[in-house]
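Re: the multi-chain job from yesterday

Posting the exact lines I submitted so nobody has to dig through the queue logs.
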Amino acid sequence: MVGIVHERAARPSSALLWEAELCGRLLMGDERALADAYDQYSSYVYGLAARVTADRRAAEDVTQDVFSHLWQRAEQFDPTRGSLRSWLGVITHRRSVDWVRHEAAGRRAEARHGQVADVGTDLEEIATSILTAERVRAAVHALPSEQRRLVELTWFQGRTYRQAASDEGLPEGTVKARLRRALQTIAAVLEDEREGSPR
Amino acid sequence: MSDHDLVLESLAAFVLDACEPDEARAIEEHLAGCTDCRSQAGRLREAAGWLAGTTAAEPPAGLRGRILTSPPPRDELSPPVAAYVAETRRLDALLEGLTAAQWGTATVAEGWSAHELVAHLLATDSLVLSWLGGPAPIPEREPTVLDRTGAVQTRHRTRTPETTVAEWRHVRDLLVGTAVRADLTMELNWFGLPVPAAGMMVIRAFETWTHADDIRMALGRPIEPPGEPALTVMTDLLCQSMPIALRLREVEPGPVSARIILTGPGGGRWDVGLGEGADPAHPDVVLTTDSISWCRLGADRLRPDEVVSVVDGDVALAQALLDAAPAFAVP
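And the result, structure tokens for all chains:
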């Protein structure tokens, strides 16, 4: 598929430039840059927040926080060290997990217990990097189920590795090692993706 | 926890936000001092970030408006970067809607047309962008301002001025993003002179303003002073650099010093030692003029004899200062 090969080769460096320029515009106080960022990443940010918090209202608050943070602290994003998407993902996730742990810990824990969603079933179209997201999704699917289960518990449900170890009746060291293997697999997929590109 | 292996073992849990707060803090401390773990953490964090891409969902329609209508106030940029932003914005506005004939008008800057002048700014800004370690959007490899200017002007001769402006804006945005994160004490080389990155951004603001006025003059419009944020850092840079300006003009003033008083916005008082052993507390001359004339002189857009000044003390020294002030003016 020629089209896909072409897109893979061209995307990363132009994405880096787009993100770096966006960051400059945000720093100059250009409100249209915030609108562009929102249009590009809101479904990603909101989707992750909704998934982790399992609460619409909380997901909206987290999304608002994340874009406010981008607006006020764009200088903290370094385009040469990673993608804006990933940076926003980290912030979104941390805020969502904070919400889960502090504001609704007891209340929600019961409701969620035992109903582990199938990671990646609700992938929607993302304007850019659909291909990468697609490959990550496939890679998550291909993880050994014991690794996937722990990624689900920690990343998507906001459990600490200690809680996950106790949930699953596993030694903590095993949980940490499995999480590490899982992320290294994903990281390797991303690195293959970037091979031959300037990024 | 300070043990390197223990940190490595917990790194995946850490980037997944799955460590207890105490442990997360200990890991953060370790990362601050350990390059290996930091690069591992970066790699894993990027992977974790992409996990999120598998859950995209449209937010409710009202949220966009809520976020965009009242964004919270932003932190201020550092003065050198703010000066560059302000002056490039003013140039931006000036370039809006010029006619083909206006784009072709020759300016006092090397006789370049307005279009060629923007290509020159594009070339210089892109060069500074690469010096500061920013992403390079244009393929030119020329390492000097003049070579790159020639290359960019040649490439843009067959393009529309709007294309050149768009490319310049793109570079400007990248340069702002890069300069904000850069170490502004980093030493750069400007036509053979060592200049810290902060001073380089002031020079960029200075040159942007100067060339904006060049275009205004070519169009028969009144020239304009720089905005106050730029004036403040421009006057300071120029006054502090007077010892170097004298050296560039091969003036050996001896152990003398000058007080430069600039009136108007961006003005102030500078006591500057001009030679070895000078005592700035006891100036040999007091030179008073207005800040805007001082900047036009520095840009070589006013001749020393066109500057209205008041001199108290060593008249010859004052003349040497006025003669040397344009020493930094480059195309």
